Fold SCP domain-containing protein.
Amino acid sequence: MKIKKSLAYVFQVLAASALASIVLHVVFLVGYSQGYIFGVDITQAILSQSRAQTSAKIPATPGPTPTPQVIVVNPVQPQTSNWSGPELWEAVNARRRELGVNGISNQAELCTIASIRLNELLDLGQLDGHEGFSTLPDRRPDLKWIFEKYNISEFLVSGAESAQEAVSLWENTLGHKKLLTGGEYVWGCTYAQNGFGVAIAAY
């Protein structure tokens, strides 16, 4: 008898729980759908009001369409210096001889370094304070033997209008003047393009 009463009680509790769950779901779904409908109505009202205000601001008949004007701009071609590495080489050796110092002999492996450095400066568009030169043996292990074979110096110039002006700029700078007055330098190479010049000198 007690078991029947217990089972009946458990059944009543389960039935009440199921009924409460159903009621809650129905209330939730009704509230959700009513809220959705309310949100849609409010959004449509706001959009309608916004459209009405926008259309009131825009005149019904547009004014005359402006005639397009073509503006022709003639680009200014940058002045490029067209002196070359061989011209710079001649100017350096001529000035060294004028100053009573031996000329420098060309050395192919030094030209490799000068060529690499000139291309780096052209890519950079400015002088790099010899940073590329100082890191070259580490960046290019295949060239390290050149730095071990010679005592190498680099001389850079930018903005000169001629090879002679490049030499003059070097001569009037204390650190670079050594290229023109340094009797210890016996080998070297120069490369130049677009106003940039690189001289590599060694002993």
About this structure: The mean pLDDT is 85.
